[in-house]
Amino acid sequence: MELTQAEIEERTAILKHLRSLLEKQRAKFQEYLEVLEAQNKAIPQENPELLAAHTDLGQQIADSIVSLQKVIVPFEELYHQKVLDTGTEEEIPRLHADLEALQQKVLHQNKINRELLAVHMEQIQQRISDLHNPYKNTKSVYTHSDHIATQISIDV
Prior knowledge:
It comes from Candidatus Treponema excrementipullorum. This protein is mostly helical. It contains three helices and no strands. The longest helix has 40 residues, at 91-130.
């Protein structure tokens, strides 16, 4: 089967665009992994602002990964329809393997962070429950109605 120049150009364009999208997605996964690793270091520091910043950044990156995936799916379908049958392209499967490995690393790091955060939250809850109120059994002047003035005398 002889390919026309237009078909070759179409396949090349699909391949280049898909490769570009997969590389962007790989970069986003790598960025997300770095954020998760930084978050892992921030958990023991008990800095809620830093943790919130890492969480927000991670959510933004995850949203962009999802957006990229929505674009990648149609291009992968085109790739499978028009390019895959030639068997000459080896870079796309390698990119998919890299993405799969990064995805597993991200999931593993996310699991480690969740477990560390759960342990840390349990420790904080324990510290809070161990706090003792020194005024717990004492009488407060503000809690009793005894000796409360009922009249005010104003002399001019």
